[in-house]
Amino acid sequence: MKKFWRRLNQNKGAVVGLVVLAIFILISILSPLLAPYDPHQIFDGKFNLPPLWSGGDNAHVMGTDDIGRDVLSRLIYGARISLTVGFLVVTISLVVGVSLGLLAGYFGGWVDQIIMRGVDILMALPSILLAIVIVAILGPSLQNGIIAVSIVYLPNYIRVVRGAAMAEKKKAYVDATKCFGATHWRQAVINILPNCMAPIIVLASLGFSEGILNVAALGFLGLGAQPPIPEWGVMLADAKAFIETSPWLVSLPGICILLVVLSFNLLGDGLRDALDPKLKGQ
Amino acid sequence: MIKILRQRFFAFFPTLLGVSLLAFSLIRLAPGDPVMLMLGERGGTPEVYEKMRTSLGLDQPILWQYLKYIGQVLTGDFGTSIVSQRPVLEEFFDRFPATVELGLSGMIFAILLGVPFGLISAAKRKSPVDYTLMGGALLGYSMPIFWWALVLIMFFSVNLGWTPVSGRVSVMYDVEAVTGFLFIDSWFSEDSWEIFKSGLHHLLLPALVLGTIPLAVVARMTRSSLLEVLREDYIRTARAKGLNEKRVIVTHALKNALIPIVTVIGLMLGTVLTGAILTETIFSWPGIGRWFVASVEARDYPVIQGGIILIALTIMLVNLIVDLIYVWVNPLLREHS
């Protein structure tokens, strides 16, 4: 563990990613305290106010949107939404994906066959298309968008955990514990799973960025979160029409998405190098 | 080779059957009555309702409906669009060339820049050039492309006025669809050169947007694959022979580093060729991706159902071809089978 932290610390990118994420997490926890206004509050007569640095109002540091809502407040609440989305996507896909992957890898046979055919089907469609299809079934909303993106990300976990479990199963310690009468449950969850943790952690970190990105994309297409929710993708969709007159409405939410996604990717790269020295330098 | 072909062949059909089941279940899984949903905004009398229900075959047992649907699909009948009243297959082939043109341009852009970037990065490992290129690649990899598209439109179309904002060719020209591929069809028209130029002009931004993430992936893959190969003994031999670094990398290392690069390109190709949903939507590109999103919005269930199968089929075929090429170029795999 100590060695792991030291390795992670040496990776400047991962440290930067971690710091930026810590800031965003703080912002999202403290959003009611940090946001100057309610994200839904409409200021009459203050439409499309530019941000402070291009001659705006002191009262609205990052300007206002087309119906007079404070952009900074909306971005701050947006951080809360996006990080929650990322967390939920990772949790759902991790729990379900790891369980299925473990089942497939540990038991093999027909259990493996059924699960892997399901994976094949999910993988035959591009991820965002699959998410759109699932939303088409469930109806467009933030909640359904999260479910859709979680399902889309399942095959990654299933494949990685299955592969790792199959490799672990052949090792001597599994035979040894079998002789002591370990149950299937004990074998799979207590003996094998901890030894598959490294790739799972890396996938989870990358899953955060993928989840946030895809849910924002759904929001942008009008198939995820619905207005007036201050979700970054929805804010971008709203801003599309004002691209010529109010460029800050386009640039600010996008920069937020990019920063968060970039940080998770930096962290994911760092974690992979730190957890799996074999892959270092790749 | 034949063994691999057989394996792929047997995996192909169950997956396609699964996809068709998924697509078929769609209408049945959607909450509420699909007929009511479709009639919803258009309104309808009980007679219209019954007629639609019968025409969709929803009054029959579900297993029978599925078998019948499979039978139709096997004869090339993917149903009829509710919105346009045209066969789904026809609509698909109308839009396919536009998507292929955009997808191939995006991939060519990504490969032409990505491979050299990765090569330079690997050659100048741990130098500022390497850090800049790989930093850029990570940035591209993390890019929300729907935002990236808007930023590029803001800069190139709105501020500089260089590129058009949407569409495939200027509305001034009426290009007759001979092959459906604009860059081929333009030669059959009168203003061939003008149309060709206009098409290229419209293609520029969407291709750049679509190629951004593949570019980042290809650059990263090229670098890591080259670094791996550069550690091999035969590279040391080549260096010991006194070959200069450029020669070592370009003629000796790159060839062997190509396999993972080709793999990663192949993996992206299927997705790119079946419609870049976000890119096509933003640039109003008349391709598969936008068609599909519009059908989801309009709840045009026959199109959604048929579209899923056609898209999956295309991706699987592309992947199959890529796999075969992969076996063919990789002597290790070729001899084993």
CATH topology of the domain at 96-298 in chain B: MetI-like fold
Q: What integer is the average pLDDT of chain A? A: 86
Spans of chain A of at least 5 consecutive residues whose pLDDT stays below 50 are none
Largest sheet of chain B: none
| Element order of chain B: H for helix, E for strand | HHHHHHHHHHHHHHH
Number of strands of chain B: 0
Strand share of the residues of chain A?
Answer: under 5%
CATH fold-level assignment of chain A: MetI-like fold
User: What is the fourth-level CATH superfamily of the domain at 96-298 in chain B?
Assistant: MetI-like
Tell me the structural class of chain B. mainly alpha
Helix/strand order of chain A: HHHHHHHHHHHH
Please give the radius of gyration of chain B in angstroms: 24 Å
CA radius of gyration of chain A is 22 Å
Annotation field: number of helices of chain A: 12
Biggest sheet architecture of chain A:
none
Residue-averaged pLDDT of chain B? 84
